[in-house]
## 1
Amino acid sequence: MDPSPSVILSDICQRFDWPALFGNQNPVELDLGAGDGGFALAYAKQHPQINLLAVERLLGRVRKIEKRATRFKLGNVRVLRLEFGYTVRYLLPPGSVSIAHIMFPDPWPKRRHWPRRLMQPEFVRDLAVVLKPGGELRFTTDHAHYFETAQQAVTDAAVLRREPEWDWSNDPKTDFQQTFDAEGRATYRARWVKAV
């Protein structure tokens, strides 16, 4: 029987031991802001050779992901309910993450709320620490201004190299992506890589 997908923190300052958490040595990817888990669960099913940590703050969404991961017997999914910045800075081992997916994060469209946006230089620097050499940050949004400021945040952080978009044609679509596609709204994507 697969272990529970729930990540229970006994020590909020102890970095994860990936083999202990997942029971194997497979590459680890992140879904930061997993929402209801539509992308995370479908992606983990498509890629059984990877381990996926889905991080989400809202309890109802976390429980939904946990239930579906258990029902679908996705032993390569773990779910953590915690703030993203804290997770990256204090819980993830340095040089251990292959790909970090950030998809349709809250754009905080009002100017006074822009400092709340996840994609800030400090966060990018913290994320670069946990990426493996050659590891990727994949960012997707429907918000043009957030896309511009996210690109500037990565440039200002000066720790990742911009690369062409990944081949996302077979990636599962989030609920947001499906809604935006139906409305004919543009989607913006960027990929950055940590230097080897």
## 2
Amino acid sequence: MKLTPVHCGYLPLVDSAPLIIAQELKFAAQEGLDLVLMQQPSWSALRDKLAFGHVEMAHMLSPMPLAMSLGLSGLQAQIDALMVLSVNGTVIGVSDALSDKMQATGWVNTFDDPRATAKAIFAANPTALRIGVPFPFSMHRMLLEYWLSHDPGFQADRVEIITIPPPQMANAVRDGQLDMFCVGEPWGSVAVQQNVAALVLPGAAIWAFAPEKILGARHDWVTENTKTSHAMIRAIYKATAWLDAPQNTPLAVEILARSQHLDLPDETIDPALGGRLVTRQGTAPIQTQRLLNFHSGAANFPWRSQASWITDKLTGWHDLDRTAALTTARRCFRSDMYRDALAPLGVDMPGASDKVEGAMAHPTAVASTKGQLILGPDLFFDGALSDFGPETTPQN
């Protein structure tokens, strides 16, 4: 069988695993695809490659297709989010020096207390706080600003957000460029292993079910290549289901560690996949719930309510027309295409493409095509609810 080539850009992060596994274990080939993975040095490079058609698909930060479609990031291009590749997976770290100052205030690092951690950060650092994120339009930045702005000690002019590519984050801390960072694994663990930083929170402690990476493609290409797009969704879905099985973790670590992929030691990759993170050199690993989710709880479903939450933040940053921005952004998250692609597999699908984000404190049974779907938890740390309502959902 002749395979259809698909060139897909990605960054060397643990959450690129669905793409790497789909290629290495032949899930893509089973769907008739020759998946060609093209590693990129930065998110801006990947963005430009996709916009100019040098790759057909991309492993993307969840706000990127929305920002590109709204003309906020580089060349304006209508980008579709075909599915979510991963939920959560980010970690927040501080320099060893800042960690020591925080502990001097009486703070204890339990790795699960956003309010106490923010209070300690501002108490320990009363002047400017330099924070590294991988890209301006990222869930990393959104979670950071959402979290820190809720603390009484927050002042916008005390916080400087600096863009640093993930592989360079540890060096930026060592060189004194950063006091703090939010990054995807394994690069937080790399900073700890290099003895330059301490991890203080998982991103999941701020939003328990944050869409981190998506599979993106240009809307015009998707329209012209619907069959190939459907095949890619099925291949990645199978890869995420494989990654969700604990018995497959050792092989997943071995594959990701290879020189053509992340090119890192097994012990750097294993913490994210196993959910056991060392928060500071010399301390015991902490088992972290929901650190990184590839598949369970409809993790791959591109919820339009998630697109709305992200876009609401973009609207505030850039003073956009909120109604127009929501309409554009909700078209980007292609729950319609996701449903069509997976129909032949008989996948249990949610009954709607929207939900109230932040409403589920526990795993919750919801209406679905087979009546077996469990969602949640998806809480925000402050207990907020985000309900944009289905009436603004566009028809694709």
